[in-house]
Amino acid sequence: MMRAFVRSPLRHLHVDWCRSHLxxxxxxxxxxxxxxxxGKSWNQASVSKRSPFFTTPIxxxxxxxxxxxxxxxxxxxxxxxxQRILGASDxxxxxxxxxxxxxxxxxxxxxxxxxxxxCDEVSHEFRRLFQMCSISYTDFIRTxxxxxxxxxxxxxxxxxxxGYIYKGEYEGWYSVTDESFLTSNQIHEIDRGDGTTIKVSxxxxxxxxxxxxxxxxxxxxxxxxxxxxxxxxxxxxxxxAKFHAIVRHWLEEGLQDLSVSRxxxxxxxxxxxxxxxxxxxxxxxxALVNYLTVSGYxxxxxxxxxxxxxxxxxxxxxxxxxPAFLMAADIPLPAGIIxxxxxxxxxxxxxxxxxxxxxxxxRAAHFTADGxxxxxxxxxxxxxxxxxxxxxxxxxxxxxxxDTYGNLLSRVAAPTLNxxxxxPVLDSNLFPSMSAQSSTSRTTDEDYxxxxxxKRLPDIVAGHYDQFLFYRGLKEIMTCLRMAxxxxxxxxxxxxxxxxxxxxxxxxxxxxxxxTLRVCGxxxxxxxxxxxxxxxxxxxxxxxxxxxxxLKCFEALEGDSREGYGGRRLSxxxxxxxxxxxxVSRR
Length: 587
Ligand code: MSP
Description:
single chain; Isoleucyl-tRNA Synthetase, Domain 1; binds 5'-O-[(L-methionyl)-sulphamoyl]adenosine
């Protein structure tokens, strides 16, 4: 029978735009194509790899991590794990902490600590969270490291030598919270309710202050047309499309040159400008260079260009400033900028000042790290904000991880149904392929619908995961698992345990269910690595049998004598995948 694999439109678009549109200067063609689009799969034509270099934003250390930070990290982690499953072995997945700037300088002062000691403490909290939540980073960068200091100096020097930095008088508004310069059109005045007014950023609502000083300026205005061309020629450069359009709109509004330094007497906590210690490099220029630092710049740019995962509040920095800096330095542009929306609480963005942040440590302890990861990636959609509540988390995890995934495994691993504790062999006379089905077969049309759905699942899920639409991939997986639960219900295997003559048919039912669990388990690994490890281990699927190359399934139906997994012993580990949550409190 022919397999009907779906081809992800993005893969072709991606390759096509690179081949035909990218200016050679930015393409460094061999490198981009090699990194991003080398295919390797059992259906060679259907799956292409993205660049195996993913980044999260580096996190400000002015406050401890919250659930929004974990979300950026989970998205990048799932993308990285997915590339590993597709076969990428040499990968970079970089995360870290953004430790310079006024915001951190002020937070350290308030805490009564030396800036570096303060940064050490908070940076450690991010590492601790990422370890707790299985974030599989390959590099954790801190902007206070020497390797980064060198990269920033080299990058600055390169921009200066190419004539893109000049000294000027800067006057304008600055938001310390956003570490962002703003024009008068980007701010407005609000009433504080006590008769006084303050000026705030229109976009973030954060307070701005007037700044007037001698700074170094970057010729950002010179890049407007090039950036517009880049966007127009690369429809997937910024994803989802909604954010691509927003960036385009910002560019159409015009670009002014950007102040890229502060006087050192105002901002001492940062990298000094080379050859001018009276100035400190702007924290965003410093921070963005972290992506180069982790690739080995200036000595080398291993696996460049990366795919950046960022929240919508920092899109401007990644989709305008960063590409402009890179163009100026003659370095290839990012392979992609994936932008996500925010987690809110009662519809308000979480922030420390509002006091409405959700603590990811205690939520991971309560729901398990996998439970929290599952919720964020299943419920979070890139293009719109999601409101967090513990009630929603409990309901989702109970319905999907406990009642659907867990229930299916406990059914087929139960000693009553499976006394031999094996991944049983399928009898292809009793459960033949759909074309060989006869009027005496006990199989039903719905059974073949399940089999065909599971066979098609890898390509469908790949299409979604490739576009960072993890929630859509999970929805498809859940559909198959629900179909498998209905399949078990339909055939009532518990009524087949008495008479030994029913054993081959009972085994065939368990085999089909376990094949479904195996395929779903492999595909869910990027989302819930611990749960799927326990699932696959329980079914005797080895750690080297969990990649894309192992997603061929139901070969036994075709009478394939190699049969794969049938006959293996189940491990003695618990078959409880996820314990139902009892407390459903409103938080
Ligand atoms: N330090 C800068 C990034 C520099 S990257 C060169 C920064 N740090 S941050 O700690 O404020 O934010 C880091 C990430 O967390 C961003 O992607 C941001 O969008 C994300 N989130 C912060 N709050 C969030 C929510 N409430 N919801 C989802 N993600 C949000 O910006």
